[in-house]
Amino acid sequence: MSFLKKLMVTAAFSAAMVVNAAYAAEHVKIALVVKSLGNGFFDAANKGAEEAAKELGDVDIIYTGPTKATAEAQIEVVNSLIAQKVNAIAISANDADALVPVLKKAMKRGITVISWDSGVAKEGRELHLNPSDTGLIGETIIKLAADYLPEGGDVAILSASSTATNQNAWIDAAKKILPEKFPKIKLVATVYGDDDSAKSTDEAKGLLKSYPNLKAIIAPTTVGVVAAAQVVTDEKLIGKVNVTGLALPSEFKKFIDNGASQAVALWNPIDLGYSAVYLAHDLAVKKEKAKPGATLSIGRVGKVTLDDTNSAAMAPPFQFDKTNIEKFSKIY
Ligand code: RAM
């Protein structure tokens, strides 16, 4: 190789090195850790995460989670993200406390940690983003059943896992307002389908068997609500048992159409993933600091203000029924 050619090759090589180094230095690796993979709700959140990454320009998203919605499996996932030296972890937790030690370890190594959707206890993250106000969701899930039970009656809850922070908080809130606001509604049982279709199906069948007078199944989980509506459909109980709760319109439209459900609710999961990435990014690049009272940007979704536990809520949920589910089912 001539001297000149050698010089050109070396120059091109160094330029590439500089670009790579800049890329590595500037790109913020944000891991979106979900309760479990294969859940359409989280896939929709990931769409929003990718949208935020594109908009921010300097973000790479690592979408990850265990196959089963357990804290133990998520601890393994987090350990591997620490080893990969990601810049930020945004987690929807399967347990508020069990993940604290591993997330503390991540923070000690300089990784920004936030929780979203399903929270981690205060000491295990910098901030938590709730989809909506917890009390409002608790009231909404009962109202969704009560609206179609003017005479009142027995209802049961089919939840996700028994340690899920978000569902437990909504159920607590629902139980609190029940006696005062919905005196004719009687909550006879709460069971757990672990955000697993097969387990949720079994639990829904069990409820119908144990409580023959059941008027509604309330499933505050997008996985459980589909399983319950399918069981009510298969057991020819449409018109007798109303299935309601939190559902992804794209997965649930057929059960509004066939009458297994009158109405369900949810916030926008795309916006939730988008907002989580915005927050994780701004903390990771030190543009913002998480502290009580701080108002932080969530891009096109707006702004949130942190409370004294460094938590905030994104937006109120929407209700879906025959009049609008078609439209929303095309979005998420
Ligand atoms: C399931 C998950 C998620 C919850 C939704 C409503 O997909 O449990 O955490 O927010 O339902």
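^ alpha-L-rhamnopyranose complex. Residues 100 and 152 are 41 Å apart (CA to CA). The chain has two domains: 7-130+269-315, 134-266.
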